[in-house]
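Shipment paperwork, digital attachment
Item: protein structure file
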Amino acid sequence: MRRRLFGSVRARATLGATLVVAVALLAAGASVLLALRSNLTDQASSEAESSARKVAVSIATGTAPAALELPDGDDTPVQVVDGDGRLLAAGEDLERISGTGSSAVKPVTPPVDDDGGDDGGGDDDGSDRHGGKGKGKGKGKGGDDDSYAYGEIADDAEGGKGSATVDGETRDYRFAALEVKNTRQGDLTVYAGASLSAEQSAVGTALTVMLIGFPVLLGVVGAVTWLVTRRALRPVEGIRSEMSAITASQDLARRVPEPATHDEVARLARTTNETLAALETSVERQRRFVADASHELRSPIASLRTQLEVGAAHPELLDVDGAVADTVRLQELAAGLLLLARLDAGERPGEARVDLATLAGEELSQRPAGRVAVRTHLEPVEVAGSRSQLARVVGNLLDNAQRHARSRVDIAVRAEGPWAVVEVGDDGAGVPEAERERIFERFVRLDDARARDDGGAGLGLAIARDVAVRHGGALTVRSSPAGGALFELRLPVAPVA
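Attachment content:
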């Protein structure tokens, strides 16, 4: 059952279309998810860098880390870390953090007093530990400047990924690390994070939609392909069914249904009907051939048997000449039938070079002088093919002309461009125009003026045309200048050796 199902064109087409769409959807879905995640991650990185830069600007303009106003809420956790990895400032409600320069959440330095001093006191002359003058907002006791010196903010921030727990809620964050150099506390690094919740939510939603929508879409594609393929192949099934019925009934007169479309299936149906018509014609022709051959063979065999039986009973009454004539006629008929059978079987003509003028001369020399004169005009011209078959053609044309001529037969051989032309004409009654194609059919003999047949079976012209066609040429008939029939044989000239 499985083999029968997947052995059908409809099943294979449906499976193939579904697989192609599935691959396309997977590739498109993966691209969308990657692009969405990349864009949202870049957006979170930009937000984190913006928050870190705001804090860095406050530090660079003289605000002490402990006095910084850090962002509130769980969307932007912030840390300020010195060069030794000590935490100098951190966002409120920060309980745990990873992915930054320090995992500490509580600052180690005391907050700065409002008047600008600190618990440790500064140098009496108000200078910082680096030897620079303070330029803060307030003055300490005795008028000394205890504020932080201006710092230098790095041009670019480094990115990273981590997590943090703020006010009991743990989230993933995108962190930006921005360095501030030459402050009173030395070189500091500001870490600020932007939540990846939007990115994770958007990616999760898109993935859920894909996991639900893709199977549904594949099902729709498979169902539509199945139905469309079924509709498209319905005429093919009709053709198959009718061909099966024709095979069972052996009725070649039946034809397959032709769809009223202009697609490949309609062309298949028309070609099938043309093949059936050709096959019907061929079979009918074969039947007529067998019937006519049987009839033609029956006459000389019956005549020969009668003469032999009479001769056996009465030797003095034996007609030897009649028996020989019947035997020759029977031999010629058998040879003609054998040649037609070989031609029908597709026998190739061969590639021998034959001079038609020489061939025509040989055929004329084998015929005794008869009641009609033969005029010749023979020019040497060579063709490629079977010498025996071409001799049979020229001989049949000469026999036909001599049989129906009144007083003269003309034969000419010449070259016309790429063609070798053999013309055989007579001054007889000619062939009616309506019968000029029918005389080339097998076992056809015309009545009236051309009925003076001295025993021909009606195979000569049929054999001549078949041989001409097999050699790539043609044999036609028209009226001759003398009033009779003019047969023209055209064959391709042999290429120059």
